[in-house]
Design goal:
Elements (H helix, E strand, L loop, with lengths): L1 E7 L15 H19 L5 E8 L5 E2 L5 E2 L15 H13 L4 E8 L4 H12 L5 E6 L18 H14 L2 H5 L3 H6 L5 H11 L6 E8 L6 E7 L9
Parallel strand pairs: 1-6, 2-5, 2-6
Antiparallel strand pairs: 1-8, 3-4, 7-8
Helix pairs in contact: 1-2, 3-7
């Protein structure tokens, strides 16, 4: 049972020991908001936090239930080893929030198809117990001339679509994101967001709360919390 989900970015500056451990002044607020969102959701009584992040295809294997994963589960609550960046950032945020439950890592290949991503999300939603998702993903990295990637005038418009979907918990809009567009704009969050869409699709329409958007380094970052709705079910 999915009790809720926190969406957060995964720039390396959020890792402990990098940029002063909090990403310096530019990303301090992003990290603080993500940690607080995790703490707030954890108060609902979470047995297991499932960390979902995009990873290189070579970093994943497949469990018997068909869900891609990377790393180990449960995780003992510390960073280390050679985890892919998204999952390492997720673990660091959960550590900072001091969540007491177990942690399971689920890495989805960056190039996974939308159908595979949504299928993985659907299977994650069937996990027993009270579970929460921590979904790691960055938006476009081509918004400005200061961005890591070359400036693309269409990048901001693509981020606007993602922004609307995350702010309104629109699973259909997330599911419709084109992998080719995500590649063009160097957006590392597409696959993980589509796992999120799959986890909430088919049930009552979810709601989003406390959405924060920022792009201090020319890369789009969001922090938001999704909660299951109590209305009629959505189409699968």
């Amino acid at each position: 049972m999915i009790v809720g989900a926190v969406v957060a970015p995964h720039p390396p500056l959020l890792l402990p020991g990098v940029g002063g451990g909090t990403g310096g002044d530019e990303l301090r607020d992003v990290r603080d908001r993500a940690v607080q969102a995790i703490r707030d959701l954890d108060r609902r009584g979470i047995d297991t936090w499932i960390v979902v992040g995009g990873v290189p295809a070579a970093a994943t294997t497949t469990t018997n239930d068909g869900i891609p994963f990377a790393g180990i589960a449960p995780w003992p609550g510390r960073t280390g080893g050679s985890l892919p960046l998204s999952l390492a950032v997720g673990i660091s945020l959960l550590d900072a929030a001091e969540v007491p439950g177990t942690v399971s890592l689920r890495g989805i290949p960056f190039d996974a198809t939308p159908q595979d991503c949504q299928g993985a999300g659907s299977r994650i939603a069937s996990v027993e117990g009270r579970c929460a998702l921590l979904v790691l993903g960055d938006g476009s990295a081509r918004r400005t001339k200061a961005s890591p990637g070359d400036f693309d005038a269409d990048a901001e418009g693509w981020d606007d679509i993602v922004d609307g979907a995350l702010r309104t918990a629109d699973t259909t809009a997330l599911a419709a994101l084109d992998p080719a567009d995500a590649d063009r704009f160097l957006a590392a969050g597409r696959a993980a967001w589509q796992v999120l869409a799959g986890a909430f699709a088919g049930g009552p329409a979810p709601t989003a709360d406390g959405t924060c958007f920022t792009a201090p380094l020319g890369v789009a970052y969001w922090v938001t919390t999704w909660s299951p709705g109590d209305g009629p079910g959505q189409p699968s």
